[in-house]
Amino acid sequence: MKTVKSQFKFKGGVHPDYNKELARGKAIERMPVPAELVVSMSQHLGAPAKCIVKAGDYVVKGQLLGERNGFISVPVYAPASGLVKSVEPRFGPAGGKAPAVVIDTTAAAPEGVDATERTLAPLDWKTATKEELLARVNDAGICGMGGAGFPTCVKLNPPPGKRCEYLILNGAECEPYLCADHHLMLERADRVRLGVEIMRKILGMPAVRIAIEANKPDAIAAMEKAFADIDGNVEIVVLPVLYPQGSEKHQIFATVGRVVPEPPALPIDVGCVVENVGTVAAIADAVEKGAILLSRVTTVSGDAVAEPKNVEAPLGTKYSDLIAFCGGEKGRVAKLISGGTMMGFAVSTADISTTKTTSGLLLLSGRRVFQYSSQACINCGRCVRACPMNLNAAEIAKAVESDDIKSAEDAHVMTCIECGACSFSCPAYRPITQFCRRAKNSIRARIAAEKAKAAAAAAK
Amino acid sequence: MKPKDTAEHFILSSSPHAHADSSVSRIMLDVIIALLPTTAAGIWFFGLPAVWTVATCVATCIVTEALCRMAMKRESTIGDMSAIVTGLLLALNLPAGLPLWMAVVGSVFAIGVAKQVFGGLGMNPFNPALAARAFMLISFTGPMTTWLKPLWWKTPEAMTTATPLALMKGLYAVDCTASATPHARHALEELPSLCDMLVGNMPGCIGEVSAAALALGAVYLLWRKVITWHIPVAFIATVVVYSLIAGGAPAYAQVLTGGVMIGACFMATDYVTSPTTSAGKLVFGFGCGLICMLIRQFGSYPEGCSFAILIMNALAPLINRWTRPRPFGAK
Fold first, then answer.
1. Is the CB of A333 inside 8 Å of chain B's CB atoms?
2. pTM, whole model, 2 decimals?
3. Which end of chain B is more exposed for a tag (fewer CB within 10 A), N or C?
């Protein structure tokens, strides 16, 4: 095991105000179960889980609420015991509605119901087979906790012919304000170590690279200590502080110098699997203790919350309860953001609940919120220099502005990772990232329509 | 805490929710700051006529911008300060002592025709100040090529003179390297000294004479990251290499006299009318330098800097297309 500096610097990137000092140094606090949980069936990327409970049912902590529904999907469990008040569509942070189970956790268990928490049987990872371990990752309901929520058991099971040469641990946490992964590495280093050993076994002993941004020296030290006596090819790679260092593609380049081709190529096509440190710790718990993923660490921060904290809250905790646990609002909240300031979702109300991917909840006052009207593009090229994907963002934005989606597609808009570096650096305050999203959505819709048409024609 | 009342919503917007500390007006302010040394040098050498020209152009540009936006029923864009930059740049590209009504006509052309007709800042295909200068050079050829001597009030017997470029033009006609003819030797001797070229003690446009002041402004723009090095370096390097190959006046004189310095650092680097990518900027700078020197050697005008940049402005969209960056991961 050794610590090395990243030798590969990707082009572009920006330096937003990190504001990490607000929640840094706040040890993870476990939040008591709130009176009501709203557990979404769509906490991951892919098909929502299929709900198998109904209003009036009493559910026990750890009980299955939603079955895995397709290949790209994960099951959902009850984060706490209680009475199912209703199953209804609820808004998620990204704006879409998905079925959710509303649980009253204050209800007493009816007579005859065994109210002890359901867990899985602990597994000895050294003797368990790869298939047993993969099944466990699925059964524990684990998906990528960095933000995208990709089902982990799918990622850990490369398709035939593809081999994982590098397992990369994403501890970059390049989003401003967020400290959840940082504190996880500090406080649960042993979990991360165990999770890495289990994943290494599943993936056939690839080399391991632990990627951490240089602004977390204590996390680097904690990882060095935890991994000091590990055998095999393991390196801690110290990354320069640069947004979006945590992007999967850029992390792969920064740590091992490989470039993931354009979509639909995946990291496994260049022999890499990238997992967030939180996901790795969840895998350790799922195998060693049989623990199901029922809670996660979320950074609650911003200049409009009384006490910024790193909170481990049950999944389905409403933002309003999370805010109350952190001492409530401080002054008037102008913007509530689920996630970080660069890629997080602004939400209209605190009546939305946490999911497996809620890494942060930011409360910003009017002073921190940018309200502006955008001007015409002056062609300054700042977005082009900032774009980590090396796209001509200005050209794409201008094309989309005049509804010329074809030109945007020709300019490789589908390669855009929506990191926000272009909008961030635009002196004319143009919503370039939003233009890119619009183009991508429109192109995806067109492709889906073409597919449906082709399928209909084939059916005739 | 109760969930928020539905009437009390938070602000919604698409990410990112952070913004760098940059704005169009701040960029324009930086350009104005960077132009102050050369403006001061111009006023020092050409006196009050330079002050009147600068004031007239800036004021006319601001008023024209305001009137155009009102006529088009669009929001006012005075606040972005681009009209001030255009006015200042136009004035710095005019000879001191030009009748002020001509400066007014030029300024109206710059803002009204070269900029607002196309939709305002960001939409104009040509640099408004240079387009206006070309228009004025054709319309008012005499006054536009009448040059005040620097510090003319000290030598009242001859207030106007020829520019060094006019002298240098003559050098192409004769072989001055081997056995210099008396005419060529005479022309070389009449050139200002290197020191005068650097500080700006020579005839020329108000803002183009002082290479040192222009370099100071360019360094400020580079430090503020308003411009990158690509266009100025490619432009000036092309001029140097061309003059070394083609002979004629010495390379330093080609760079330090005429519009090369102000053109390379302030006119060709105009965002709107130059390519976006680094590779495109290098091509653009090379083209500016090459066309400028071709006009200086073969054209009927002694100076070709403005025309060179205008021609390359027209090519900028094409250069952008040719030098589109290769996306990370693309084949």
1. yes
2. 0.89
3. C
